[in-house]
Design brief:
The protein is an alpha/beta fold. The protein has helices spanning 6-14, 20-27, 31-34, 38-54, 67-79, 136-139, 150-160, 178-197, 212-225, 227-233, 235-245, 256-259; strands spanning 56-59, 94-98, 107-109, 115-117, 124-126, 132-135. 47% of the residues lie in helices and 8% in strands. The strands form two sheets. The chain has a four-stranded mixed sheet.
C-alpha cells in the first residue's frame, strides 16, 4: 500500500494541494509538533499527505468530515512512525470516524464459551488487520497536554498488532533487548495497578491498568503528549519507548507559548 516508488511519492506530494495556512492551523493545536525542528515538521507533513493518499478516512453516524479533520487525524497517526516509516501502517485500509463515542455491539465469547453482546461505548478501537475507529468528540481534545490522545492510542495498538494481538509487546528493532522490555514494562504495569487499587492519584491514566496492551497504548499517548511526566514517573519505560519510536520528545523544550498554557 505504501510501497511507493520515489517517482510516485514525489507525484503524490506535488499534487496534494495542502497549503501552508491549513498545515499551520491544524498542527498549531498539537504540542508534539511544537517540539519538532523544521526538518522533522517537513517530514511529518510528507507522511501525513502520503497517509491520506493511502488510507480511506470515512465518516459514520451523520458526521461530516472535511479535509482539515482528516489532516488532523493523519498528523497524529504519523507522529508515531516519523522515524519508523509509513509502511508500518500497511496491511489495512480504513479509518472510520463517528461524531461521538460509539457502540459497536459485536458478539464475543466469554470464559464459559457463551456468546455475549458487547454493548460498551468506545472512544476508539483498532482491529487486527482491520480498521481503526475513532470518536471525533475525543479526537478534538488532542493538544490539551493531559496525556490523552485517542488517535495516538489506537495507532499504538496498530503497531503493537504487527506481530499479533495487542499485548504490549510490539516487534522490537534490532539491538533492543526483549527481556529488558518485558521486565521494565511488566514492573511499571504492576506498579500502576497497585497504585490505582490503592486509590492513589496517578499521572498516567488509570485506563492503562486494563491490560498490558492498554498500558503500552496509554504510555505511548503520554510519551508524545506529556513526555516529561513519563520520564519522571517511569524513566525506564520512557527509555524503552524512546528506543522503539526512535524519538526523544522530553529532550525538546516546548516553546514558551505552550509552556504558559
Amino acid at each position: 500500500m505504501f510501497g511507493f516508488t520515489q517517482w510516485r511519492r514525489r507525484r503524490i506530494l506535488s499534487k496534494s494541494g495542502l497549503d501552508d495556512a491549513t498545515w499551520q492551523r491544524v498542527t498549531g493545536r498539537l504540542p508534539f509538533v511544537a517540539r519538532l525542528d523544521d526538518g522533522e515538521r517537513a517530514r511529518l507533513k510528507d507522511l501525513a499527505i502520503l497517509f491520506m493518499h493511502g488510507k480511506q478516512i470515512s465518516a459514520a453516524g451523520g458526521l461530516e468530515l472535511n479535509q482539515e479533520m482528516k489532516l488532523g487525524i493523519a498528523v497524529q497517526a504519523c507522529i508515531l512512525v516519523l522515524e519508523l516509516g509509513i509502511e508500518h501502517y500497511d496491511g489495512w485500509i480504513e479509518i472510520i470516524v463517528y461524531p461521538d463515542e460509539f457502540m459497536p455491539r459485536h458478539e464475543i465469547r466469554n470464559a464459559h464459551g457463551l456468546i455475549e453482546t458487547d454493548e460498551m461505548s468506545y472512544a476508539g478501537q483498532a482491529w487486527l488487520r482491520g480498521p481503526v475507529i475513532l470518536s471525533w468528540a475525543d479526537v478534538e481534545h488532542a493538544g490539551e497536554m493531559d496525556g490523552m490522545n485517542v488517535v495516538i492510542h489506537e495507532f499504538a495498538h496498530k503497531l503493537d498488532m504487527l506481530n499479533g494481538e495487542a499485548n504490549g509487546f510490539p516487534p522490537l528493532h534490532a539491538g533492543m533487548n526483549r527481556r529488558a522490555w518485558s521486565q521494565i514494562f511488566n514492573a511499571a504495569y504492576q506498579d500502576l495497578c497497585r497504585r490505582v487499587r490503592a486509590g492513589e492519584h496517578t499521572e498516567i491514566d488509570a485506563y492503562a491498568t486494563e491490560s498490558p496492551g492498554e498500558f503500552f497504548a496509554v504510555v505511548s499517548e503520554a510519551f508524545f503528549e506529556i513526555p516529561d511526566i513519563v520520564r519522571a514517573v517511569y524513566p525506564q519505560v520512557y527509555e524503552q519507548l524512546a528506543q522503539f519510536y526512535r524519538q526523544d520528545p522530553a529532550s525538546r523544550e516546548l516553546p514558551r507559548e505552550w509552556r504558559m498554557k
